[in-house]
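Course assignment 3, question 2. Fill in each field.
Student: A.L.
Task: Predict the tertiary structure for the chain below.
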Amino acid sequence: MRLTVRTKMVVVFTIIFLMIGGLSWIDMSRMGALKDNTKKLAENWMMGIQIIEEIHYNSDHILAIYYQKKLEPDVKKHEPLDAGMAASIASIDKLLADYKESLAGEEDANYFNELNKNWEDFKAAFMKNKQIAADPNKVKEAAESLQVMATTFGKAQKTMADMVVFNQEGGRKAELESLNVYKSSVNTSLIVLSVIIAFMLITCYILVRNISSPVRKASQSLNRIANDYSSKK
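Answer field:
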């Protein structure tokens, strides 16, 4: 069955339409992936970085007050220092609750659980030290309790530092993933577009040839008939 020129053109333009539709679908899919990566970067990593750095800042404030308390011989002046530590502890408790909402996977959750445990140990040591320190007859016990508090705080702060690094690296990886998705999308679009252009050029050449070939043959036949007619005259 020989296809007419009209049928061929309909088939060709249908194929071109489908290829352009495929390119649009690929672009939309890539844009969706890029959007998801951007959302992940904003909601998980960037928020996590901000929160954990605030937690780390408050922990440094607690450490400063701790040393100030350790160097202060007057027990009566310990109360405002304890109040300052309690305020920073409350801030960290709230920040930890916020951080839990931005966990970015199993590894992040493991870090969080470790920090939460170390932090609860520190708070328990802090409350115990506060109670013992209120009794002037328990100077030795208070010193030992202060040492336990320092140890538990050191563990918590080390986990905080690890989490700062983890979140920074995670943010960089997410940013790199978004960049790779963008580059892949551009490359795919260029390849598909090149294929479409090449297909259109080849198709146009074939169509022109198919249209011009019968016309050329008809012209040659007419010229031959005209020559035969002229020679007979």
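Instructor remarks: The chain has one domain: 5-211. The first helix runs from residue 5 to 71.
Grade: pending
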